[in-house]
Amino acid sequence: MEVPIVSRLMRMEPSLAVLLVVTIGAVAIVGFVAVVTTPVGMLVGDSFWEYVSAFHGLGATVFLVGSTIAVYLAWRLYVGEIRAFKDLKVMAAFSTVMSAFTIGFGNWIYMAYRSTGGPRSYFLETPGLEAIHDTFFEFKEFIALFTLPMFLVSTFILWRYGDSLVKSKEARAAASVPLLLGWVFLIMAYTLGAAITKLRGVG
Amino acid sequence: MDVAHPTAPAAEAPAALKFPTGAIVAALLAAWIGLMALAISNIAADVDNGFKTAITLNAGIGPYSGKELFMFVGWFVSWPVLHFALRKRDLKVKKWFAAFLAGVLVAVLLMWPPIFGAIAAAIQGG
């Protein structure tokens, strides 16, 4: 027996809004179940600095996801085949905001890194680990800053010139390549940050 | 009268961007100036302890605070200046963009600790 309402719903094209609400709802339900049935907080830690560190890492991860989408769209722009130009503008702006957010939390957590008994003194005082701070962390803290100018330059060009950029090969390159460079700098900072945190996190 | 080609062939016409290209060049140059300000202040702090102390604006993050300030001041002061100076000019993006890429490469190399450490040691030795 055919139920008219159900069969009609089955034939309907789900709108993007409905798909978004269903996805967010599903994630929220899974998240809620995880939080009430397991000690999720233990994964973060219970000190103040561990929470700051978690926000820094979370911000960097969201930045990485958003900028990866932006880089793909920037590639489409670079080769002159972009259709979702508005999406590129939005994702570039979003990545710029996330860069600033992550740098801000990075400055905050750097205080814990440099504090007495923190990871920096551990690396410098442990024979064989000096280079972790002297080379890798020093480079990480600087290259992370490079992401902001790269993403902001691209965002500025994309928003100021709009889709008129598509007509100029050189302008397309100027708008898209800094975004790619910023993404490469982000990958460097992200992997170094993860590796260093694995060796010694803030507590 | 030849009406088929009233103007130059389309292939030779400049691309119709919404604004002159000067603002693109200004944005690229300003970003590069910021990065170089960061790189130079970092080397200067390695060379001179007095400078390192002077740019320690926040005890928590040490001289990194002053280095960041140099970058942001260099970037955000030069950007409006260059923008208003160049925004009405049509500059060759290809040439300036190539210079920007080369400049970013130099800035990255100057931030690599073995390189900036060697430069600082050479300046101190000299």
Notable traits:
heterodimer, A: 203 residues, mainly alpha, flat, B: 126 residues, 69% helix
Query: Taking Cα atoms only, what radius of gyration of chain B do you get, to the nearest Å?
Result: 21 Å
Based on secondary structure, the structural category of chain B is: mainly alpha
Mean pLDDT of chain A: 92
**What is the end-to-end distance of chain A?**
63 Å
General form of chain A: flat
State the oligomer. heterodimer
Describe what you observe in this structure.
The complex is a heterodimer of chains A (203) and B (126). Chain A is an all-alpha fold and 203 residues long. Helix content of chain A is 81%, strand content 0%. Chain A contains eight helices and no strands. The termini of chain A are far apart. Chain B is an all-alpha fold. Chain B has one domain (22-124). Chain B has five helices and no strands. In chain B, helix 1 runs antiparallel to helix 3 and helix 1 (22-47) packs across helix 5. Chain B is elongated, with a radius of gyration of 21 Å. The termini of chain B are far apart. The A-B interface holds A 107, 110-111, 114-115, 134-135, 138-139, 141-143, 145-146, 149-150, 152-153, 156-157, 160-162, 164-165, 167-171, 173-175, 177-178, 181 and B 15-19, 21, 23-24, 27-28, 31, 34-35, 38, 42, 60-62, 64-65, 68, 71, 75, 92-94, 97, 100-101, 104, 107-108, 111-114.
SSE topology:
The complex is a heterodimer of chains A (203) and B (126).
Chain A lengths: L3 H8 L4 H22 L3 H4 L3 H31 L6 H30 L4 H7 L4 H32 L7 H31 L4
Chain B lengths: L21 H26 L1 H6 L9 H23 L6 H19 L1 H13 L1
